[in-house]
Structures are given as C-alpha cells and as structure tokens.
Amino acid sequence: MKRRDFLGTAGAGALLTGGVLSGCGQESTPEKAASAAPEETIEWKMVTTWPKNFPGLGTGANNLARLIGEMSGGRLKVKVYGAKELVPPFEVFDAVSSGTAEMGHGAAYYWKGKSEAAQFFAAVPFGMTAQEMNAWLYYGGGMELWEEVYAPFGVVPAAAGNSGLQMGGWFNKEINGVADLQGLKMRIPGLGGEVLKRAGGTPVNLPGGEIFTSLQSGTIDATEWVGPYNDLAFGLYKAAQYYYYPGWHEPGTTIECMYNRQAFEALPADLQSIVSSACRVANADMLAEYTARNNTALQTLVNEHNVDVREFPRPVLDKLRTISEEVVAEIAAQDALSAKVYESYQTFRKQVVAWHDISERTYLNVRGG
Amino acid sequence: MKRRDFLGTAGAGALLTGGVLSGCGQESTPEKAASAAPEETIEWKMVTTWPKNFPGLGTGANNLARLIGEMSGGRLKVKVYGAKELVPPFEVFDAVSSGTAEMGHGAAYYWKGKSEAAQFFAAVPFGMTAQEMNAWLYYGGGMELWEEVYAPFGVVPAAAGNSGLQMGGWFNKEINGVADLQGLKMRIPGLGGEVLKRAGGTPVNLPGGEIFTSLQSGTIDATEWVGPYNDLAFGLYKAAQYYYYPGWHEPGTTIECMYNRQAFEALPADLQSIVSSACRVANADMLAEYTARNNTALQTLVNEHNVDVREFPRPVLDKLRTISEEVVAEIAAQDALSAKVYESYQTFRKQVVAWHDISERTYLNVRGG
C-alpha cells in the first residue's frame, strides 16, 4: 500500500458520506448546541500522507478531524491538509515532531528512516490481521512499544484506521509457480518489495500517478495497490488481466494518527481524552468501511468488469513466507529497540495464531456461503 | 453466551486494568483539568444485564462509563449498576424505555420478546463475525435497521462491544457424529438451543450459578459459555473433559449500549457525540480485549490444565448449519420488520463471505504458525 501518497488523481472529490457516526440517529454539529461555554478555541493542523479526500485513507483523516470538532463542541478545531498542501507526504513525521503541525496522519512504515522498528506498527508480511493488531496494540503491549519508538522525536502515536487484508495485486503474467517470480517487474515497495527481490523478482517503486500507464505499456508486469474498493476506483482492472490474492505482504495495515507531544500535553484532560478516543473510533470505523466497500467493489469487478480473480499457488506463498521471515528477522537484528518490538510482536503473533486457528480460521472454513 | 447475567460469582472483583485508553500515554481524570467551565453536571444511570465487574462484559460497561466521564470533563457522569442492583437483568430494556435509567448495557437477543428481529443484532448461528457485523452495522445499513427496531420503545441502540468468536462449549460426551447429538443435554439458550433441539438434543436453560454443579454431577452433558478468557475464570475445565470448537452458534456476539431517546436528545450536541463515540470505542476495545485474553487463556487451559481441545466433526457442523438456516428463516417469517432485517443481514452476509473467502479466510489458511 506504500507510497500511494504520491497519487494525485484517483478518488479526488470522492468525499464519502456515512462513515463515523453513521447510524447514531443524530446530526450533531459544533454550532448546534453546547452547554459548556468554550473558554478558547484551539486550532490544530493535521498534515497527511494522502491526497486530500482519497477514499478510505484521506476521508478517514477528515472523519477523525470532524469527530474531534463535534465531541469538543468546537473547542478543538482540526484542519486537514492533503499531501503536499502544507508539507510533502514524507515530511509529515518531521512536521509533527517539530510542531509545524500538531497532528499527522499516515502509516508507520513510512518512518523506517527514523527507526526500523516503526514498520511493525503498520504491516508485516505474513503478520497479524487487523483484529490481531488491535489486540496486540491495546492489550498486548504494542502501544507502549510504539510510544517508545516515537518518544525520542516528541511524537505520540495512535492507531487511527486499518485497511483490512489487502489483495496480492494486479498481474499481466500468470503466476503458476515460484519460477514465475523470476524477473517479475512489480511495483511493490517496502518489505514486500524486498521479499520479491530475494525471490528473484524486480521490485519497482513508482509514484501512484505512473502506475496505470506503466502497467498498460508493459514497463511493469504487476502492481500491488490496496483492495477492491480502492483498486476499482483507480481503474487498475483496465490495465491488467489477473487479480491475485491474498495480500500476503499487507494482511491488515494499521493507519496512524500522531500528535506533537508538547501540543498534546498542553490540552486539558478532556480534550486529550477526546483526541485519543477519536483515533480509536477512526481506527475501527475505517476497517468497517473497507470491509463493507471491498465486498461491494469485488462484486462489481467480477460481475461488471469480468476480472479474473486468482489465488497465488501454495508453493509461491510458501516461498514468500519463508523469505518474509528472514527479512523481518533482519530488521529486528538492526538495533535493540527493533529487537524488543520484534520479540513482542512475534510472541503475540504466535499465540494469537493458535487461538484464531480454532476460532476465526476454523469458522470461516466451515460456515458455508 | 446468553443468560450469564444470572451468574453471581465468577469474576467478581476481577476489575481489569488496561483497557480503554491504555497505551495513550496519558492519565486523564475529569478532575485534573478542563478548560470548559461546566455549566451543569448531568448524572445518568446505566443498568446492565451483567454481574457488576464481570470480566469483559461488566468491565466493558465500566470502561464505557469512565470514558464518557473523561471526555465530557465530568459534565456527564454515568453510574453503572450490575444486574439486580437497580433492576433485574431482563428488565434492563424496559428500564431504559421508561426512563428509570437513561442507559442500558446488554445484548440485543435478550429483547426478542419485544421484537424477534432484535436477535440479528447480537448473534446469528453461522452468521457474521465481529468484523463483518461492524461493517454491516456502520456501512451496510444495519444500524438504521436496529434503530427502527427499537424506535417504538423510545430506545436508541449502539454497538458497544463484541466477544469475538466463541467456543462450542464444554462436553463430557464425545461428539463423533450427528448421532451423538441425540439426547444430548446441553445448557445452550436462544437460537443455538433451538437448533440443538431440532438436531435431537435437549437444550437446558440454567442460571449461571448452577452450571458448574450441573455439569459436574451429570445433570447436563455439556454447556456453552463464552471462550477461553471467561471460561478459564469460571473454572469449567474442572467439570468437563472436552472443549469443542468452533462456536457456530455465536460467531461474534455484539454487545449493546442503549439510551433513552428523550434523555439522549436532551443532551447538548457535543455530549451526544461523546456518548455515541464512547460506544464506538468500547465496541472495538472489547474485541481487542477478548482477542488478546482468549489467546493467553487458551495457553493456560492447554498447558496447565491439560484441556482436551477438539474440533466438531464436519458432518455435525453441516447438520447444525442446515438447521440454523431453517431456524433463522423462521424468525424472519414472523413479521415484516424481521423479514426486512433478515433480508439486509443475509444479503450483506453473502457478499462479505465472498470477500472474506479470498482475503481473511485464505490468508488464515496459508500464513503458517
């Protein structure tokens, strides 16, 4: 999913309705009523790594800002800036760290330059799903570690969204076995790209705006993106023959909101609680949105656009998994903090796999269509 | 999971630490600071169907109340009452409807006496998982239908927790085939009980406090409860030989918070938003808690108590699924509103199964241990 922040076209203007607070049976605006008399209005800037209003991710940032405004009765107003509007997407972390913006919205794997350990808080190939990530973050020590990773920069992290399980990507070459990965030119950044490289492929990093053309012209053989909801909007089905699953490289990507520590600590306790809680709402809400919209979009892709949906052959997934384990272990070996995060993540993953093997996994296999 | 509200012993005093707001890097209490000058303090009562402080469920109600207090800077104080403290557990809905309490905490299947349709908003045998339920509720029209079901009673519903996938239960008889369901005396209330009955079993309804003794003495052959986290605390491993999975009858039970409509509408807009959002936080938080604690408890059950964990044979699950479909369809046939909810639920379920077949399900099957 990485680096889609360069994207400047798809989904612009597609501001979603519904979303956070849908179904609450009320329309509440800060202006409507507020029994608390605001002593002052605080204004915050939120810089984001996404194009303004990008479906799911950018609109998730909008929802979060709106919710903070609603809950605070207008006492805390958060203005959202799309990528490049205030700072370039990859400078979001620094902007929050320095206080140029009080708040940032992105994904932790963008900040591996600050700490390799950051990647564990976004997506790990063959790692935990959305539900498992949240269990680790909130009840398995994950949040405390994430705070430790960002602390030297004066930044406080929060989970603020999740894409759910992604798709494997769009391909113009059939993948029938491990040999088909040899020489495969695929736009797949980050850890997934490193894994593909070691499997014999050629990972390519392209700005979002060049992906479609590169795929259509044959400059690349394949690309990963997100899942049906975003991929349909991006029109990738027009440029590729096969749509492979599952998204082994991003099995439940956590989206983050982070705040400048000084700005956050200067807030009164109720506004701190509102900001933290709004992130919790946004985290769960985005997963619900992706789950619902992916399933609708998948029907459209299959029924209206005749997309050829295929599963990666098991030997291919086995190979990618083995390499993924090596790559992730190497990250962990780079420094003490990464090792500490890896240890916590892997221990929790192992146990939750045992639990989900007899719960979610078995159930999904037996429940019928 | 039903009727555990009669329980008066297990887990009392086990008030959990962590939970909502854990990992937010702050301690905030209403007293600490609040830039908004409270014009008045509103006091609400929350009646619950759970024993006070019951792990996960009762503590989830406590977390929710505390969060409302924090976010409102103490302007809205919610006092939580355990089952029987103010009203009996099965009078919670009526208490909220009449305004005896402004808020209630339970699960919608308790209110099937008000509307059969209510059951779709808690748990449906072979139905949707927690993640799918949230997608349906917030982005698939589910919340609007739930509001419609409760509207005649002046009650507004919110999802405020989820147990995740439950276990099939504790058995002193091996289940090797469909024939073993014949005459099986099992404590399993609600829809699951009706399904068991049609499969030849004898569903028994027992208050929580009698389950352990009944199972130990052989009065019943089996009981369902929740999952490892609650079941370990309840000591059921001491009274049964086999622990079966999966929990086909409750694949992701939604816990509800509901409010008296008049009381809710009398709140200023910011407090309405705070109450609704606190429910959203609690909804996701409880699932994270169960996911994390179930996986820890499962290790304890297996490694320290030598619990014999077994999977229901596939023909048994196939039989139960077929009957479940009949039972659920019969509910839908009882009245127009139930039919409308069933139609929405089933349509969404069918589509999300297709999406999760190529995402969550495939991934859980291939990711390795």
Q: Can you walk through the features of this model?
A:
The structure is a homodimer of 369-residue chains. By secondary structure, the first copy, chain A, is an alpha/beta fold. The first copy, chain A, has a domain at 4-33 and 40-164 and 253-294: D-Maltodextrin-Binding Protein, domain 2 (3-Layer(aba) Sandwich), CATH 3.40.190.170. The first copy, chain A, has helices at 57-71, 92-98, 130-139, 142-150, 190-198, 208-217, 228-234, 261-266, 269-303, 314-332, 336-366, and strands at residues 42-48, 76-81, 103-106, 155-162, 169-171, 185-187, 202-204, 222-223, 242-245, 254-260, 308-311. In chain A, the strands form two sheets. A six-stranded mixed sheet of chain A has the order 7-6-8-5-9-11. Chain A is globular, with a radius of gyration of 20 Å. Chain A starts with 41 loop residues before the first strand and ends with a helix. Chains A and B meet through helix 1, helix 3, helix 4, helix 9 and helix 10 of A and helix 1, helix 3, helix 4, helix 9 and helix 10 of B.
